[in-house]
Amino acid sequence: MSDLPDEQVSGAARTDWLLLEYDYFKHLSTIGLVTLGAMLTWVQGDRGAGTTLVMVSLALVSMGTVLGFGAMNTIISHRKTGKPLRRFFNYERGISSGLFATGLGIFLSEIGKVVN
Question: Counting Cβ atoms within 10 Å, is residue 24 exposed (0-12), middle (13-18) or buried (19+)?
Answer without folding.
Answer: middle
